[in-house]
Design a protein that fits this description.
Layout lengths: L1 E6 L3 H12 L4 E7 L2 H7 L7 E4 L8 H11 L4 E6 L4 H9 L4 E4 L4 H12 L7 H12 L10 H11 L4 H8 L3 H15 L4 H10 L6
Parallel strand pairs: 1-2, 1-3, 3-4, 4-5
Helix pairs in contact: 3-4, 6-10, 7-9, 7-10, 8-9
Length: 209
Amino acid sequence: MIKISIIEDNKYMREGWETILDFEEDLCVIGTYGSCEEAIEENQLGKSDLLLLDIELPGMHGTEGVKVFKEKYPNLSTLMVTMHDENEKIFTALRNGAIGYLLKKTSPSELVEAIKVAIDGGSPMSPNIARKVISSFQKKQDIDVDLSEMEQDILTELASGLSYKAISEKIYLSVDGVRYHIRNIYQKLEAKNRAEAVAKGISYNLIKS
């Protein structure tokens, strides 16, 4: 059972998400909050596997909240869900620890799928947001990155959206081995998460076709 918390100041949106997610037999909403401050005061987010976090919140914004929650609950995965796709907010949220970024117009089925992808090790993003992330890195071409053949293979599989476990099964390597190579990839690409690594991999033509 995937345990989910929600921080969203719009009561109807919050209740709508809760209804959608609780309808799924393997998802369970265990906490909903109208602000980051309320969630901090309750101090229950550590019981969740994943947090759906709005950006435009009263008081502490979601871009700052994700950083606070990442430090306080390092095992909690955070998906940003927002009305807006401004570049600055996207990159701030990703830099501060968000693993994915969805627009609120995302359909119920896409929201459920994004949560499952995130829990399985992926970094779901709405298509137009993914394009913005990629575009930002395509402007930076003056870098020489030396990835091994194994690292290129793993980066390619990361780009296809596979989880660490699925990659390990496909390339016949242990999950720990995959994690080791991914750490090296992140270090060489100076990336903080999968989204940055994949975007830079595309930008520098490191993704195998």
